[in-house]
Amino acid sequence: MSMRQGARKGSVVLGTAALVAAMAACSSGGGGDGDQIEITFLTQSDTDNVAAAEALIEAFEAENTDVSVTLETQPGGTEGDNLMKTKLATGEMPDVFHYNSGSLLQALNPDQNLVDLSDQEWADTLIEDMANVVSTDNGLYGVPWGSTQAGAVMYNKPIYEELGLEVPTDWAGFMANNEAILAAGTAVPIIQTYGDTWTSQLFVLGDFANVTAQDPDWAAEYTAHNRFYADDPALQGFENQQAAYEAGFFNEDFASALFDDGLRMLATGEGAHYPMLTGAGANISLNYPDNVEDVGVFALPAQDAADTRLTVWLPNAMYIPNTTEGDQLEAAQRFLAFTQSEEGCRVQTEILTPSGPFTTDACELPEDAAPTLTDVQAYFEAGTTFPALEFLSPIKGPNLEQITVEVGSGIRPAADGAALYDEDVEKQAQQLGLEGW
Amino acid sequence: MKTKALRRNLTGGVAVLISVVVFLVPFAFIFLTAAKSAQEASALDVSLPTEWFLWQNLVEVMQTRDYMLVRAFVNSTVLTVVSVTLMVVMAAMVGYVLQRRASRWNPLVNFLVLAGLIVPPAVVPTIWVLQTIGLFKTMPGMIFIEATFGLSFCILLFRAFVSTIPKELDEAAIIDGAGPVRLFFQVVLPLLRPVMVTVVVVQAVNVFNDFTGPLYFLPGSDNATVQLTLYNFQSQTLNQWNLLFMSIFLITIPPLVMYIFFNRQIVAGMTSGAVKG
């Protein structure tokens, strides 16, 4: 009996092993023919990114017949961040990938994982702000893909015309405009959409250029743990949000409204102001094509008009992981250089809806750009722009959006919220191993 | 007498009403949004579309990324069918042996089964293992992962159910001259049908709906499963709600059909093994 039991066990083990072997066998295969260099390009799977990537690949392959590019996609957001790190850690990153610049790039540990591109021809054409956010002390790692966007107040132009209002340059002027809109009663002065919590952060994040105008070293000192949100000038962003809530300027359903609701209200004139990233223009031109001309942009005003600056988000970039070698590396570098060529710029302007000026000398905005673009461009030409904090400091606490929802809903006073956020970032700074924390 | 019947009907009516609200309204919302134009859909309300775009949206969703959804349906079907089959066969065998034959290995096996439920799957080490044995980014690798994650739960169900089958049946079969293989496949396995249906349905829905598994262990556009295709239509700032909901609508149908057909067996199987441990 015991012999038979042994035999039985053995047959199960053998059967399993055979199954594994059979399955492994049918998975092998693949590879390509010798002449064609095959590279893979990874981007985020939303429609805009994919359409642009497909157009870019098509244009690239037409000019470089010896290379064939395969497109791969993955979700963005937190899930995407984890996936990027996983792929780099396991050596499975495709030959070229598209990802955020600034602090999220720093989190990928570029010195260790990416190929230095500072010897490429296009490296000198990047504007300084852009070069900074794709570099470390040891090298330049990315080529920008897409345009800048501003974190600013998007406003409904017809309402301004109807009520004879001027674009405000200081906070008092902004509040006076809100008062006038509220009195007229046709529209909500300020749109807030805390159903999508990330939209609540704009009062604070979009105010950062104003902070820098008052204290040029703020970002560096913040990283060194010498500046705090609980103190002026940075506290002002939280206080402004509280003041706007207390004045009753928000839409009634601000607590549950979604980002898409906010854009509908803005585009159709149900609301006058929406502090938002100008990348939202793409959404307006998709869903409200007739109202594109009705939406303008101005910088979130500082208390003093002299300090008002436009806070700018720099575009994402493309990178090459150092697992890419040989012919693939050479082809990947050609692919990146192609994005800065005339054809590459054409794809960036036609398919990726620009939301602000480009960050290289290689590309220019089209002449018939929407007002959201021309408004932003005006700030660039005047030189009154400044990058957002997330591009200057690796510190960004995970709970800012929850805190700004509380401040904007009157649950927590501004000073409290700012202090809580200072605590929130502490853990993250310690995780990053920054000095002074 | 009459009031009693009336009351019974009333309670029944209320129950029906509640289930309609809880189950059918979300489904109606999905269907209606899937039939709208992009503009109308972005309002996200329950209303009839002013113009029906059902067919256009369907075609557009299908064609996105070179018919990715079609490939995804094929992948998901293969993944679900094979991994669930594997789970059922393996778990039935383990559950049977574990329940019928006491040995000093049993505590260890029980511990491992429980460990399979308790220990969270770690992503990077799992990928390393798959890379070493050459199964990473392949369908068989993904099948094994799904089967492994589901196995513990299935073994517990099978073991509990086997205890309800009288031992005398086994003994009678052995006396009649059945070998171990014949005993298991011809005598015991047919008796496990109720719990098998439960396992099949529960695990099929699990595997079919799994998002993070394929996301991490099965990258590549050719390998996409249906849940991953949803991300083609959403991002932080730009959501195409009509296409997203059309995609959701298509993906919801297979599990829904399964539930409609197997509803009775699911409940029966769940409770039949639940009393005896």
> What is the CA-based Rg of chain B, rounded?
23 Å
The fraction of residues in strands of chain B falls at under 5%
Strand content range of chain A: 5-15%
Straight-line N-to-C gap of chain A: 69 Å
Please outline the helices and strands.
The complex is a heterodimer of chains A (437) and B (277).
Chain A: H1 2-27, E1 37-44, H2 47-63, E2 67-74, H3 77-89, E3 96-99, H4 103-106, H5 110-113, H6 128-133, E4 135-136, E5 139-140, E6 142-145, E7 149-156, H7 157-163, H8 171-184, E8 188-190, H9 202-205, H10 208-214, H11 218-223, H12 235-246, H13 259-268, E9 271-277, H14 281-287, E10 295-298, E11 310-313, E12 316-319, H15 326-339, H16 342-350, H17 371-382, E13 385-387, H18 389-392, H19 400-408, H20 414-432
Parallel strand pairs in A: 1-2, 1-3, 8-9, 11-13
Antiparallel strand pairs in A: 3-12, 4-5, 6-12, 7-9, 7-10, 7-11
Chain B: H1 2-34, H2 38-41, H3 54-100, H4 106-118, H5 123-132, H6 139-162, H7 167-175, H8 180-191, H9 193-209, H10 212-217, H11 226-229, H12 241-272
Helix pairs in contact in B: 1-12, 3-6, 3-9, 3-12, 4-6, 6-9, 7-8, 9-12
Describe this structure in words.
The complex is a heterodimer of chains A (437) and B (277). Chain A is α/β, with parallel strands linked by helices. Chain A folds into two domains: 158 residues, Periplasmic binding protein-like II (D-Maltodextrin-Binding Protein, domain 2, 3-Layer(aba) Sandwich), CATH 3.40.190; 226 residues, Periplasmic binding protein-like II (D-Maltodextrin-Binding Protein, domain 2). Chain A has 20 helices and 13 strands. In chain A, strands 7, 8, 9, 10, 11 and 13 form a six-stranded mixed sheet that branches. A five-stranded mixed sheet of chain A has the order 2-1-3-12-6. The longest helix of chain A has 26 residues. Chain B has 277 residues and is an all-alpha fold. Chain B has one domain: Orthogonal Bundle (MetI-like fold). Chain B is flat. The mean pLDDT of chain B is 88. Chains A and B meet through helix 1, helix 2, strand 2, helix 3 and helix 13 of A and helix 3, helix 5, helix 6 and helix 10 of B. Chain B: Belongs to the binding-protein-dependent transport system permease family. Chain B: InterPro entries: MetI-like (IPR000515), MetI-like_sf (IPR035906). Chain B: It is found in: Cell membrane. Chain B: This is Trehalose transport system permease protein SugB. Chain B: It comes from Occultella aeris.
